[in-house]
Amino acid sequence: MKTQTEGAVREGARPDGAGRQPRIAFRSGLQQLLAFGSLIGLVIFFSLASGNFFQFSNIVGILLSTAVIGVLALGSTFVIISGGIDLSVGTVMTLCSVLAGVFITFWGLPIPVGVAGGILTGALCGLVSGFAVSRMRVPPFIATLAMMMIAKGLALVISGAKPVYFTHTPVFSKISLGSVLGSVIPGFDIPNAVLIFFLMAILGGILLSRTILGRYTFAIGSNEEATRLSGVNVRAWKMAIYTVTGMFTGVAGILMASRLNSAQPALGMGYELEAIAAVVIGGTSLSGGKGTIVGTVIGALIMSVLTNGLRILSVPQEWQTVVIGFVILLAVYLDILRRRNA
Amino acid sequence: MVVPARGLYFESGIRRRKGQTAGVKSLSDELVRMEGIEKRFAGVHALRNARFDLKAGEVHALVGENGAGKSTLMKVLTGVYPKDGGKIFFRGREVQIPDTRTAQRMGITMIHQELNLAQDLTVAQNIFIGREPRRAFRLFLNEKEMNRRTAELLAQMNLDIEPETPVSKLTVARQQMVEIVKAISQDSQVLIMDEPTAALSDAEIEELFKVIGRLRADGVGIIYISHRMAELKRISDRITVMRDGSYIGTVPTESASIDGIITMMVGREIYQPAMPDPGKKERREAVLEVRGLSRKGVLHDISFSLYKGEILGVAGLVGAGRTEMARTLFGADPVDSGEVHVHGRRVRIRYPHEAVRHGIGYLSEDRKRFGCLLEMDVQTNMAMASLSRFMKFAGWMDDRRMGEAAGKAVERLMIKTPGVRQRVKFLSGGNQQKVVIGKWLIRDCDILIFDEPTRGIDVGAKSEIYRLLENLAASGKSIVMISSELPEILRLSHRIIVMCEGRVTGELVNDGNVTQELILKYATDRSYAVRQGGPG
Question: Chain A contacts of B407, Cβ < 8 Å?
Fold first, then answer.
């Protein structure tokens, strides 16, 4: 039903800009409430089911395990809202951590330079995907599938298919596992990875809802051709959007490498799908034009709470995957129901 | 007459219908009656005490401005929206229509503005989709039988269409006929036609009217939604007017006057047509000069000038290349050769954003696909062409300033919306169009290309848009206005260029001596293409 809703607006004109609520938050408010409600519901359920769940250390564990997928999902939110998809984030993340390892361990570059190099690698991969999508007009699914393989192959080639260890630079692992918060507030030992995840979420939220990049992201996802005919350089902005996704992917790569204190070239495949799952559970539409960062954060948390809770209840890993599959189905179905009634 | 085994099938299509054999032609046969229909959407009272009735064998026109509730009422009748109150009677019995399938089964079918045919399937496959004749224990499709029966149906309607033609090969008019035949083949007794002539040529309209006449004779009731008054006068038996979601009145067409109907629709005075002020264009500055614009197979050596403060009408039949010319000029489609000068400087326009940078704005004929971001709010839509002007620093958006600018445009354009945060999909067609115009006003473009600015817009909003175009021209903007409605062209343009088959075939100064006949002569006479190819 794409017909206009006739007669929907019959009140007198109030061109004063009634309602100043943040646009994005207001629109998907219900979906977020729903997602947030489910998250709380899950936490309560697992807390009642097992005394081990609601422990400080376990909650920190959940947050820590959310960090990498979470940052990947934050980045994916941008491409998905723009109506695209990025299948390469998993292996590009790996390539970023491998390159960070090469810069720091093999070349002996200072850690900040190596970190920046890793993040830039991600941004560059995003730029290339964006170029393929917008200039070469390759469908996003195919372009990023190609990038997925290119990155996977490059990670293996560069590392010689062997893990790169950060043995000479023990400080590197502090990026993820150290606790700046713990040193400020004694006892509040939240690992940096979690802090970085939330900082990246705030950055993503600002980019998406307060900046021109975010506006164009929604506009392109909502109606790309109309946006182009408004005089927007859609091709350039699409490249920018894929680059932002790549940058987030780079950050995830650093977090991953730091947490394992090594770059594992064989890891990464499949992470893109988990990231997409988190985005979708968070209420972002795969057809573009709709979505929020808060939703993605909640989506990522729901996934790791489920995994963690089920593990505590000794549900075998295979079954955890089955449950998550159903959760994705349910989340998207609820979203469709909501839209139908809207 | 071979009758297939499954009872679902019609026999000879339109001759016999379920549950009745004779007497359908009696005008007193009531098919549908809707009484006191109420419908609310999130705080908006879309239908209040709405009423409608339809007899067998009549064409009952339903008119009203965009937003008057016509479509909503029809969506209640076809089960798209559940009603909040009121009663629906079908053949005298009260019925509930909770979903579209129920309506379908009762024989109430809507022929949509956007046609619902599978483009790659054949005519026959489309007509029989979902109920294909089968053979060999119903395991295999019986294409032969299907084509034979389709041919029969088409013959009954006197339509010269091959059953095996893929639908994509047919014109829009022909596709519409296929939709109608499909509905009839499903035993539809009530056909709702929403702006059926919007995309049709005059000859095609004649063909449609013949088909409607045949349906009427066969006792089918037709609800006819249209903005074209002259058409209603010709084809309808009765006219019902709605306004603001309410029933205003029903009049027999014979005794109705067009002015009377329009007054009922808008409930206010309409801006009266007047001749445009020809102005003194001899000494005016040419803001846009197009020289030899060509695109292989589409545009041939298009040349014209546009002066400051002028409305240049572009007339031509469907397929004359007017939209293609506009899109090419705006950089939306590629160009092969030709020069464009803006304010005397030669410019290169390869993409829309380059056109906008040179102060050119484009309003598409298809606003839902190419004009609006339906899911986004009024202010974002209006600011879309000039977002970078509403930044504070480093890409940070200044929503307050954006809202203020949009608010001003909403006021200036008299857009009916609860606020600038309203999503555009909830606005009526005329208001959506104004939002798109507002986008170019906020961008402050000097040169505006309006492609069918009043398509699908009701009479009241139309005259508002006319006045707006005149005001824009008076304030020094230059406007290229493409329109298929010749009265509109004559009403607004200072000068007119006529196109035919991708060429400019005529250029006229609208000094009062130009007639529709003259324009049509240029629009159809191909010899002019040779003579007047160069700069006009």
Answer: 15-17
